[in-house]
Design brief:
By secondary structure, this protein is an alpha+beta fold. It starts with a helix and ends in a 10-residue tail after the last helix.
Length: 816
């Protein structure tokens, strides 16, 4: 039962949110910046040698062409092994990575590189992550940024933005620690090999670089630049002899920059063929098609007179739009209930995915549970510190724990007293550790600096959330936990979730609280609440990107200015990341994240792959509309239980002729080139499974139905001629036959003649077929009416979402 004050707060929040939506423009996904990562086919991997003192190095970037905002793998061989302290601090022998721009045909200068966002990191000295040049070790090769005798002014390598802006300080208007993609310190293993994930940024994410954009009629060239570092400072001084003896200089210092390895990159054009100003055909719907549609858009836009727009909206909003007079085309994972005249066409096979970015850290306890000094830990365990854990498994009960805030870490303000004895986070849960020994290597306990206890989930109402709850409820142990029974280790359900109606089509936050942080300045009175610290993700793609960047998206840094507020927390540092989130298989691949293996109905742990998702499709059954339904208990032992077939849906009878032509062309493309895996525009990105031949045929049939649609002719209404009302006119009686030559004999029968007034009062009636045909006005631009429908439905969808998140326990029933 909600208190009156809570209800009023919810009402105020809803009114404010609806007001915001009413004035906010609807976004259309960019044609390039959200396309997916490499998907097979021809490779654009490039390997280049090192230079100067590092000629033995071979550096490989696994994708260099058709780049969008995505994560690629950078690897190297032949480098000296990193030298680190027992506690894991790297002193020397590491790699520094950054993205740079250059004029067409030129090589990048150090002034054109995005670096210096992380001023302070736990590895290396003062300027290793900085643009600062002046320091105690003066670089004898530095000729540009030098100080005159007696000058104590700090010197920084300038940053020259692609738009002509020149900055001469450490801080930049273009990038900072929350937006930069630089990697200050990447380790090299004892065998001389190393690898690091690197986020490629277009001009939308890195406006100072402008990659993929045209700036003043010129498109800049872009590069990945790696600066290898050894154990020698710019002065020739050797470092690494003790724990406080580490490299101190910036990679932009001239002697270090002379060793830079430069790899040219090619970005897909931002804006591309879907240029502004052309009419647009709108599509809306499921996040599951985002990566595919944004790969297809440039080709589709270039192959016709109209652009294709796409807006990701909740399932309920898509259903509302499809029911409207301007249904457009929506992407759905299930049929829309009670809607007639719909054509469904399969377009993608993919899956929901739980992804993780967890890096091994220095163990703090030995197998007996006692604290241990890092120098006593076996070398094989220490050698893996900072590397990513690639094999993670989850069961339905572990998911139930994560989704109900039953770990203490996921309950930051201590409102649920009954979980006081539960594990702090999932990495301390005996059930999880039994499945995932990498979290307790050789019996040594690793306490993650950034605890691994909560999960990014999306806030929207969706059938996908309901499917996850179905998967959880398919397991007897999970049902028992949700019903209140402790697991074998004594862990119990957060009592705030008792009585939650399941399955539900959202991920409600039942345990909410607020506090004013202890580090808040005086007179700071703005509470920090659960949803500030543990916010929802905006989309599957944003969740995957946050994982790759170590970005918690939490706002808990008090800021006191004209108005008290909270700023974003810093990203987790490289080597100390531990994040978990719900995304989709394509977004996980785009950002190169580890996809967690789930236990299926056969007891096997499987991740989404071409094999496992293909096997799951074979276990699906069709509904009455021919739509394949997800099956969380597939019969195949190799099947991935959260596999989804996404359908394009439209109502041809309520489309304009232009819309029918455009949507048919989209489906024809999706069933052909759109199913060819690859990294180029128009291909099927990695993370999707090409449609089986039966589904391709179904899509082509649907395209033909839309193309050949003919509106049914209304049944003709027979012409009705009104029977005129007779008028009786009496014939005068003939006079007496006094004059027989002119007399008319009387018949005695009255004569009838139609009355002109009667005939005009009851004319022949014919129904107007023109009036029937014009009952639905044709909009001058198909996208205009569609966007109006999208806007109205989006407002309703958000209203329903807020009510579902705030009021999830109306008429509760026990789970299971």
């Amino acid at each position: 039962m909600l208190s009156a004050s809570t209800t009023r707060r919810a009402q105020r929040a809803l009114v404010a949110l609806l007001a915001l939506v009413a004035v906010a423009p609807l976004s259309v996904v960019s044609t390039t910046n959200d396309a997916s990562a490499s998907g097979g086919g021809a490779t654009s991997s490039v390997t280049v040698p090192g230079t100067g003192a590092f000629t033995s190095i071979q550096l490989t970037v696994d994708q260099t062409e058709d780049l969008v905002n995505q994560t690629v793998k950078v690897s190297w061989t032949g480098a000296p092994a990193s030298k680190a302290t027992a506690s894991g601090v790297v002193l020397g022998n590491f790699m520094q990575l950054m993205q740079c721009w250059a004029a067409p045909g030129k090589q990048p200068t150090r002034e054109q590189c995005q670096f210096g966002g992380f001023v302070s990191v736990s590895n290396g000295g003062q300027n290793v992550a900085s643009r600062q040049i002046t320091q105690s070790d003066v670089d004898p090769n530095e000729k540009v940024y030098v100080r005159a005798p007696g000058d104590l002014t700090l010197k920084y390598v300038a940053f020259n933005g692609v738009d002509g802006t020149v900055e001469n300080s450490q801080r930049s208007q273009f990038f900072d620690g929350s937006t930069t993609n630089e990697v200050p310190v990447a380790r090299t293993a004892t065998d001389g090999t190393g690898s690091q994930l690197f986020e490629m940024q277009t001009g939308l994410e890195a406006p100072g670089l402008g990659c993929g954009q045209t700036i003043s009629s010129t498109t800049p060239d872009c590069f990945l630049v790696a600066v290898p570092r050894g154990l020698t400072e710019v002065t020739g001084r050797t470092v690494g002899e003790n724990v406080s003896d580490y490299l101190n200089s910036s990679p932009l210092s001239q002697s270090n920059w002379d060793n830079a390895i430069k790899v040219k990159l090619s970005f897909r054009s931002v804006g591309g063929a879907c240029s502004f100003g052309r009419p647009e055909t709108a599509t809306t719907g499921s996040d599951f098609v985002t990566e595919a549609i944004t790969s297809w858009q440039p080709v589709l836009c270039g192959g016709g007179p109209r652009n294709f727009g796409f807006t990701s909206v909740p399932d309920e909003t898509t259903a509302s739009i499809l029911r409207s007079d301007s249904p457009g085309m929506g992407f759905v994972t299930q049929s829309v209930p009670g809607l007639a005249g719909v054509v469904y066409a399969p377009v993608t096979v993919s899956g929901m995915a739980f992804a993780a970015n967890v890096e091994r850290q220095v163990p703090l306890k030995d197998p007996t549970g006692k604290a241990v000094s890092p120098d006593k830990i076996p070398a094989d365990i220490m050698a893996k510190v900072g590397t990513r854990i690639e094999d993670i498994k989850l069961t339905p009960r572990l998911l139930a724990k994560l989704l109900t805030q039953s770990y203490r870490f996921d309950n930051p303000f201590g409102t649920a007293a009954n979980i006081a004895n539960n594990p702090f986070d999932i990495s301390r849960d005996p059930e999880f550790l039994a499945l995932n020994p990498d979290f307790k290597p050789g019996g040594y306990t690793v306490f993650l600096n950034n605890s691994f206890g909560r999960m990014f989930v999306t806030a929207g109402l969706s059938q996908n959330a309901e499917l996850i709850w179905d998967y959880v409820l398919s397991d007897a142990d999970a049902r028992s936990f949700l019903a209140g029974k402790a697991d074998a280790g004594g862990m119990v359900l957060n009592q705030k979730y008792k009585g939650l109606t399941l399955p539900t089509n959202s991920f409600p936050r039942a345990d909410l609280g607020c506090t004013i942080p202890s580090n808040a300045p005086p007179l700071f009175d703005l509470p920090n609440c659960t949803l500030d610290v543990y916010p929802f993700a905006n989309s599957f793609a944003s969740a995957a990107r946050q994982l790759s960047r170590g970005d918690t998206n939490r706002r808990d840094v008090p800021k006191q200015a004209l108005v008290n507020s909270y700023g974003l927390a810093a990203n987790q540092q490289l080597g100390e990341r531990s994040l978990l989130g719900l995304t989709d298989s394509a977004s996980a691949q785009r950002y190169n994240q580890v996809v967690i293996k789930l236990r299926n109905n056969s007891g096997n742990f499987v991740a989404p792959s071409t094999t496992s998702m293909g096997a799951a499709v074979g276990s699906m059954v069709k509904d009455a509309n021919g739509v394949l339904l997800p099956n969380v208990t597939p019969t195949s032992k190799d099947a991935y239980p959260l596999t989804i077939v996404t359908y394009a849906a439209t109502v041809p009878g309520r489309l304009t002729a232009n819309e029918r032509a455009d949507y048919a062309r989209l489906l024809t493309f999706a069933a052909s080139q759109g199913q060819v895996p690859g990294t180029s525009a128009g291909n099927l990105p990695n993370g999707y499974v090409p449609l089986p031949s039966q589904l391709v045929a179904q899509t082509n049939v649907a395209a033909a139905k839309i193309t050949n649609y003919v509106a049914p002719k209304p049944k003709p209404t027979p012409t009705v001629t009104a029977t005129p009302t007779p008028t009786l006119t009496a014939t005068p009686q003939a006079p007496a036959p006094s004059d027989t030559s002119s007399s008319v004999p009387s018949t005695g029968t009255p004569q009838t003649t139609p009355s002109p007034s009667a005939a005009s009062a009851a004319p022949t009636t014919t129904p107007s077929t023109t009036a029937v045909a014009q009952t639905r006005p044709t909009p001058p631009d198909p996208v205009t009416a569609t966007r109006v429908a999208v806007g109205a439905a989006l407002i309703l969808g958000i209203a329903a979402l807020l009510l579902r998140v705030v009021l999830p326990w109306v008429a509760p029933r026990p789970p299971g």
